[in-house]
Design goal:
Belongs to the peptidase S26 family. The chain has 235 residues and is α+β, with helices and mostly antiparallel strands. It is built from four helices and twelve strands.
């Protein structure tokens, strides 16, 4: 019996060709999945790792949150929204001094959701364009927006609204952002006196944090606040 097929190739060679074709299919499928995932994360939704406790008790270190990149394309940023933003030029320096390889490793870790970013932050919107945001004036320990005191049930237990006094008017295209764990948060208050006065450009907002994905036992939707009740009709 001949050990060759009609085309002159042995069964072993046919098996090898099928195996190579199968691996090629798997490889292209993986490449396609990575490209599709990259496009989704670049334009639709992304996942961010929470590295610090600045947004406790809502977000804890190690949480992974789903962030919508599309919500603000059709809607506006609202007071009370929890947003993820690029802090370069405000909370973070514009340029990194890390070597290229180190930056690449960091970027890969961030993309996989294993590490946080040195330039990406998550905070809560306290004031939008046109708002006057103040704290600790006239003996009232609460933050006021346009003269109205704000009740903040999301604050970290035992934290005061702010140990630092401020009184700012938010210009067009800017936001006043603060962490829920005020005593542990570097936020707009940290930039008072710096260029921009602690006001974050709206264009730097990546998206709204919508849901905690991981760990599973903490998986929950991040609700938008009812402005009338929580913000005490501050508008």
């Amino acid at each position: 019996m001949s050990d060759t097929s009609a085309d002159g190739a042995s069964p072993r060679k046919h098996t090898k060709r099928r195996s190579i074709a199968g691996w090629r299919f798997v490889l292209w499928a993986l490449v396609g999945a990575v490209v599709l995932g990259g496009l989704l994360r670049a334009f639709v939704v992304d996942v961010y790792y929470i590295p610090s406790g600045s947004m406790e008790p809502l977000l804890e270190p190690g949480d992974r949150v789903l962030v919508s990149r599309t919500e603000y394309r059709t809607g506006s940023i609202q007071r009370g929204d929890v947003v993820v933003f690029d802090g370069r030029g405000s909370l973070a320096p514009l340029r990194s001094s890390d070597p290229v390889l180190t930056q690449a490793v960091k970027t890969a870790g961030q993309w996989l959701g294993l590490t946080g970013s040195d330039t990406v932050y998550v905070k809560r919107v306290i004031g939008v364009a046109g708002d006057r945001v103040a704290c600790c004036t006239d003996g009232d320990p609460r933050i006021t927006v346009n003269g109205q005191p704000v009740e903040e049930p999301y604050l970290y237990p035992q934290d005061s609204p702010s140990e630092q006094a401020f009184d700012v008017v938010v210009p067009e295209g800017r936001l006043w952002l603060m962490g829920d764990h005020r005593s542990e948060s570097a936020d707009s208050r940290s930039l008072l006196g710096a260029p921009g006065g602690g006001l974050i450009p709206e264009e730097r907002v990546i998206g709204r944090a919508q849901q905690i994905l991981w760990p599973f036992e903490r998986s929950t939707e991040i609700q938008r606040l009812e402005l009338d009740s929580v913000w005490n009709s501050a508008e």
